[in-house]
Amino acid sequence: IALSIVAAFVRVRILSAGGLFDPVIWEAMLRSRIGDALFIRIAGLGLILLAATRLAFGPFLAGVGALMVVGSYAVMGHSTLYSPRQELAAIVVVHLAALAFWFGSLAPLSWVAARGDVSAAELIEDWSRIAIGVVAILVLVGAIGAALLIRRADLVLGSWYGNAFLGKMALVVVVLALADRHKFAL
After folding, report:
1. How many CB atoms lie under 10 A from the CB of residue 156?
2. 126 CB neighbour count, 10 Å cutoff
3. Which of 10, 79, 152, 167 is deepest in the core (most CB within 10 A)?
4. Rounded to the nearest 5°, which phi and psi values hold at 146?
5. Residue 139 reports pLDDT greater than 60
6. Of 139, 141, 161, nearest to 152 (Cα)?
7. Per the confidence metrics, is the pTM higher than 0.85?
């Protein structure tokens, strides 16, 4: 939540050429897609905090909050500028949800692995089976999104987005190679 608020101040500073408290800039930003995404993200992060409570429905609301956070990224950004808009929004949400599952489970898995007992190994094996499907979905929707956003392959090397895309793809290849090594070689 704090980082989202800091990011809002950074945006205002950039938009107002150095000022942090220009009310006109704040109003314009908060009424824009950036503001919509900020409000959705903060509300979702607030719901995620309920997972730490003893409320019976806390985990359910935390799950809703996680979906809100992921969905907030479909409200703004480069995917909102292109059509088909609804398909790109769905791709962003599925892509980020899959990434959040995979990345978010790494720390808990390392804690479980440190136990080193049979139940930990079974849990990691179950997670691995699920993760293979999640990674496949991640790659598939990422490829579909890239195909919808990158209309001409010759522009990939000449644009900031294309270079960022190629860097991201290189990172994905490295991560998949590490996963392959751990799954099949070790």
Report:
1. 14
2. 10
3. 79
4. -65, -40
5. yes
6. 161
7. no
